[in-house]
Write a structure and sequence with these properties.
Chain lengths: 565, 275
C-alpha cells in the first residue's frame, strides 16, 4: 500500500515539475545548484587543506546540529501542510489505507523532496572537507549515510513536534500552530546555543571552534566521520548510534499517527469551534463610513484579530529588545546619557534599520491579507487610489506608532532635549511615510497568500528587492541631510585635502567643502535646505509610490494563492 | 451619491442592463468564451446555463471586471466594465460560487464595510441589513467571525451584502449551491421580487428546475459558444418540442441525450451480464 501511494506521489511530482512552464525553472535551478555546489566544494576543500583530519570532528560536530535546526525550521510549515492541509488527505482517509502508510509516504515526501536542496547544502562541503583533509575512502560513503540519517532524524523531529502539538494544543489554538511550533524551535535553537557554550567551558577544543556535547547524536556522527576518515573501522559504531536515534524518532512519531495525525486532522478540519462574538448587540448597525475609512477599518480589524500577522514584527522587536536589555544591563546607558547628540544618531540609525526590515515583513505584503477575498475589492466601486490609501494609512499608522514610541522612550531615558525629541519624531515619521509607501508598492509585484502559513506573504525575490529599494531610498533621503550636519571645523582640513587630491577624491572633497562653506556662511539656510530635502524626498516618494500602487490596483494585482498538496 | 431606492440610474438612453458584444477569452490555444453576444433587459431574470467547463464562470467574471476579455466589450447599465469600471461597479453586485469573504471580520463588520464602500446612508443601511439578515436567518450569527461560518452561511452573507446596497444588476454564480432548501426558496422569491421592482438578475445554475421556474429568459453556452437564447417557449418552438422541459431541451442541445442512451446501454449490458 505504501508503495502504491509513493507511486501516486511520484506521478504527481513528475506532472507538476515536468509541465512546460516548469522546465526552464528546473534548468535554471539545476544550473544555479551546480554553480553553488562547485563553490561549496571548494569552500570545504579549502578548510580541509588548511587544517587536517583533526578538523573533521569539530566542523561536522557544528554543521550537523546546525542542519538539524535548519531542517526543523524549514520543514515545520511543510509538515503541517502535508499532514493537515493537503487536499489529498481527505480522500486518503476515506480509502482502506492504514494511517501509518499515509504518514510514511508524507514523511518520505518531506525527507526527499522537501530536502532536495538542504541535503547537498551540508553534504557537498563535507565531501570537499574530506578531500582537502585527505580523508580515507571510507569517509565518503559514511558522510553520505550520516548526513542522510541526520536529516531523516531532523524530519522525524519535525513530525514528532507537529503531532505532539496537534495532540495537546487546545482546539481553539490550532490556528496558531505554525507560530507555536516555530517559537518552540527558536527556543530549542537558543538552548542548543547555550549547550555549546557550557560544553565549551568543559571541554575546550584546541582551535577556535566550540565542541559539541558528547551526548548529542550529531556528535556521534561527527566522531564516526573523523574515525572513518582515519580508516578506523570502529567508526561505524557511533554511526550506528545515529541511525538508531533517527530510527527511534521515526518510530516514536509513527506511534502517534492515530491520535496526532488522523484525529488531529479531524480536529483541525472541524475548525476552531469557538463562536467569537466581538461586540455587544447594542453596537448593531453602526453607520457605514466613507470608502477609504471603510478599507482602513477593515484592514486594521483583520490585522488585530490575526496574531500571526504581528509575528512578522516579532523578530525585529525581539532583536532590538535583546540589544536594549544588554545595553541597560551592561550599564552602557549611564555613560550614553552624557552624550545625547551621539545617542540621537545611534537611535535614529537603529530606527531606520527597523523601518527597512519591519516594513518589508509587515507593510510590503499589505495586499496579501485579502487573499481569497480579493474579489470583494475588485468588484467594488473603489478606485485604486482609495484602496492604496486605505491600506497605506493602516500599515504606516502601526509602524509610526512603534517608531514614535521608541523615539519618545529613548528621549526620556537618554535625556534628549525637547528639540532633539521632536526632531527625532519628525524625521522618523517623514522617512517612514516614504518608506512604507515604497514598500507597499514594490510588494504588489509579488504578493502571495498561503492560508496555512501567513508568514509566507511575499515572493522571496520581491522581499529582497523591497529591502534593496528601501536601503537606496534611505541613502538618497538621508545623505544630503547628513552632509549638512558636517562640523564647520572640518573646513581647513578639507581645504588642504582638496588642494592635494586629484581625480574623483578631489571632486567629492570639493563637494563636501562647498557644503561646509555654505554652512559657515549661511548656517540656517543650510540646515533648512537639509530639512526641506528630507521632507521633499519622504513625502515626494510617498506620493509617487502611492500613485504607482493605485495604478497597479486599477490594473489588478495578482495574488499568488499557495495550494497545499 | 446613492440614496434610498435605486438612485444609481443607468446611463441615459441605455435600454439594456447587460450588454456583451463579441466577448472572447482565450487561454493560449484554448478558447474559453468565443465571441459572445448577449443583451439582458432591465428587470429581467436571466439564467445562464451550460455544462461544466462551458464558460459560464469565465463569462460572469468578464462581465464583472474580474477577468479581462481578449476581445469584445462588456457593459453594465450602459457603462463599459473595463473603460468606466467605477461607474459600472457602483451599479452591480456579484455573488461568486465560492463565497470567500474576509475571514477575520464578523458578518456585521463585513456588511458595514460594503455599506461604506457603496456609501449607503446609515438609516437605509440599518433597515436593509435588518430585513435581509432576518430573511436569511443570519441575525443570531451576525456577530461571529466569518471564519466560523459554514459555506451556506457565507453564501447567505454574500447575498445579503450584494442586496444591501440595492444594485441595479446582480450577478450570481451558482447561488443555490450550499443553501438549505428554505434559504434557496427565500432567495428565489427575493430575486423574483427584486426583478419585479426593476433590477436585473444574471445567474448561472446547474439546477434546471430553478431556471425553468424563475427565469424570464435563458442562454445556454457550450464550449464557449452561446448555442441557445430565449424564453422557454421560444426554445421549445425552435426545437419543435412542444411541452418539453428545460432539462430536455438542455440535454438535447448539449449532447446529454447521447449520455442518457449510453447509460441505458450500460445498464442493459450489466443486466445481461448478471443473468
Amino acid at each position: 500500500m505504501t508503495g502504491l501511494l509513493l507511486w501516486a506521489q511520484w506521478r504527481q511530482w513528475v506532472h507538476t515539475w515536468l509541465s512546460r512552464r516548469r522546465v526552464p525553472v528546473i534548468i535554471a535551478i539545476a544550473l544555479a545548484a551546480l554553480s553553488f555546489a562547485t563553490m561549496l566544494t571548494f569552500f570545504g576543500y579549502a578548510i580541509g587543506r588548511n587544517s587536517s583530519l583533526d578538523a573533521l570532528r569539530p566542523v561536522a560536530g557544528l554543521a550537523l546540529p546546525a542542519i538539524v535546526i535548519v531542517v526543523i525550521l524549514a520543514d515545520l510549515p511543510q509538515v503541517y501542510g502535508q499532514l493537515y492541509v493537503a487536499r489529498d488527505v481527505e480522500l486518503l482517509f476515506t480509502l482502506p489505507i492504514p494511517t501509518r502508510s499515509i504518514f510514511l509516504v508524507k514523511y518520505l515526501q518531506t525527507l526527499i523532496v522537501g530536502n532536495l536542496l538542504t541535503i547537498p547544502l551540508i553534504l557537498i562541503p563535507l565531501i570537499g572537507l574530506g578531500i582537502g583533509a585527505g580523508a580515507h575512502l571510507l569517509y565518503y560513503p559514511a558522510v553520505v549515510l550520516v548526513v542522510f540519517v541526520v536529516v531523516a532524524g531532523a524530519v522525524a523531529i519535525s513530525y514528532l513536534m507537529m503531532l505532539t502539538l496537534v495532540r495537546f494544543l487546545p482546539r481553539k489554538r490550532l490556528n496558531e500552530i505554525i507560530v507555536a511550533s516555530q517559537a518552540l524551535t527558536g527556543l530549542i535553537a537558543a538552548l542548543a546555543g547555550q549547550l555549546f557554550r557550557f560544553s565549551d567551558q568543559l571541554d575546550r577544543a584546541p582551535d577556535v571552534l566550540p565542541v559539541a556535547p558528547i551526548w548529542l547524536p550529531t556528535t556521534w556522527g561527527a566522531i564516526a566521520l573523523e574515525r572513518l576518515g582515519r580508516a578506523d573501522p570502529f567508526g561505524i559504531l557511533p554511526a550506528l548510534g545515529v541511525i538508531a536515534t533517527s530510527g527511534v524518532l521515526l518510530l516514536l512519531s509513527m506511534r502517534m499517527v492515530e491520535r496526532g495525525f488522523r484525529l488531529g486532522w479531524v480536529r483541525i478540519s472541524e475548525g476552531s469551534g469557538r463562536k467569537r462574538q466581538t461586540r455587544a448587540r447594542s453596537a448593531a448597525y453602526a453607520p457605514p463610513r466613507g470608502p477609504i475609512a471603510g478599507i482602513a477599518v477593515k484592514e486594521i480589524t483583520m490585522l488585530r484579530r490575526d496574531i500571526r500577522q504581528w509575528m512578522s514584527l516579532l523578530p525585529m522587536i525581539v532583536l532590538f529588545g535583546i540589544g536594549l536589555f544588554q545595553f541597560i544591563a551592561g550599564g552602557g546607558w549611564t555613560i550614553a546619557r552624557e552624550y545625547p547628540s551621539a545617542t540621537w544618531f545611534v537611535v535614529q540609525s537603529g530606527l531606520v534599520t527597523f523601518m527597512i526590515f519591519a516594513g518589508t515583513a509587515f507593510a510590503a505584503p499589505a495586499f496579501a491579507l485579502d487573499g481569497l477575498a480579493a474579489w470583494v475589492l475588485r468588484t467594488a466601486p473603489l478606485s485604486g487610489w482609495q484602496i492604496a490609501l486605505g491600506k497605506f494609512l493602516v500599515y504606516w499608522g502601526v509602524l509610526a506608532g512603534l517608531v514614535i514610541a521608541a523615539d519618545l522612550i529613548a528621549a526620556v531615558v537618554l535625556r534628549w532635549s525637547l528639540l532633539q525629541a521632536a526632531g527625532g519624531v519628525v524625521v522618523a515619521v517623514v522617512l517612514l511615510t516614504g518608506a512604507v509607501a515604497l514598500q507597499v508598492w514594490i510588494g504588489t509585484f509579488g504578493v502571495r497568500y498561503d492560508p496555512q502559513n501567513p508568514h509566507n506573504q511575499l515572493r522571496t525575490g520581491i522581499g529582497f528587492l523591497v529591502i534593496g529599494v528601501s536601503v537606496v531610498y534611505f541613502l538618497v533621503a538621508l545623505l544630503p541631510v547628513l552632509l549638512t550636519l558636517l562640523p564647520t571645523s572640518l573646513e581647513p582640513l578639507l581645504a588642504d585635502d582638496v588642494a592635494s587630491a586629484s581625480g574623483w577624491a578631489a571632486t567629492v572633497g570639493r563637494a563636501l567643502l562647498a557644503v561646509v562653506r555654505l554652512k559657515i556662511a549661511h548656517p540656517v539656510l543650510t540646515t533648512g535646505l537639509g530639512v526641506l530635502w528630507l521632507i521633499a524626498t519622504g513625502l515626494g516618494i510617498a506620493a509617487f509610490a502611492l500613485w504607482r500602487t493605485a495604478r497597479r490596483v486599477d490594473a489588478g494585482i495578482q495574488i499568488e494563492i499557495v495550494q497545499q498538496g | 451619491m446613492q440614496q434610498d431606492g435605486r438612485a444609481q440610474v443607468p446611463r441615459e438612453g441605455v435600454s439594456s442592463a447587460i450588454r456583451a458584444v463579441g466577448l472572447t477569452k482565450r487561454y493560449g490555444d484554448f478558447t474559453a468564451v468565443d465571441r459572445l453576444d448577449l443583451v439582458v433587459q432591465p428587470g429581467e431574470l436571466f439564467g445562464f446555463l451550460g455544462p461544466n467547463g462551458s464558460g459560464k464562470t469565465t463569462t460572469i467574471k468578464m462581465l464583472t471586471g474580474l477577468l479581462e476579455p481578449n476581445e469584445g466589450t462588456a457593459e453594465v447599465a450602459g457603462f463599459d466594465v473595463w473603460r468606466e469600471p467605477l461607474a459600472a461597479k457602483a451599479r452591480f453586485a456579484y455573488v461568486p460560487d465560492e463565497p470567500n469573504l474576509f475571514p477575520k471580520l464578523t458578518g456585521r463588520e463585513f456588511l458595514r464595510f460594503i455599506g461604506s464602500v457603496f456609501r449607503v446612508p446609515a438609516d437605509v443601511f440599518e433597515r436593509r441589513s435588518r430585513d435581509l439578515l432576518t430573511l436569511f436567518d443570519l441575525t443570531d450569527s451576525i456577530d461571529d467571525r466569518i471564519e466560523t461560518y459554514s459555506h451556506g452561511m457565507r453564501q447567505k452573507l454574500a447575498i445579503c451584502a450584494a442586496l444591501v446596497h440595492d444594485p441595479e444588476v446582480i450577478f450570481l454564480d451558482e447561488p443555490t449551491v450550499g443553501l438549505d432548501p428554505r434559504s434557496a426558496r427565500t432567495l428565489k422569491t427575493l430575486l423574483r421580487r427584486v426583478c419585479d421592482s426593476g433590477a436585473t438578475v444574471f445567474l448561472t445554475t446547474h439546477i434546471l428546475e430553478i431556471a425553468q421556474q424563475m427565469c424570464d429568459r435563458v442562454g445556454i453556452i457550450q464550449q464557449g459558444k452561446l448555442i441557445a437564447l430565449g424564453t422557454l417557449e421560444e426554445l421549445r418552438e425552435r426545437g419543435g418540442h412542444a411541452g418539453a422541459s428545460l432539462e430536455d431541451i438542455f440535454l438535447e442541445l448539449t449532447g446529454g441525450a447521447e449520455s442518457a442512451e449510453l447509460i441505458e446501454a450500460l445498464a442493459e449490458g450489466e443486466r445481461s451480464g448478471g443473468r
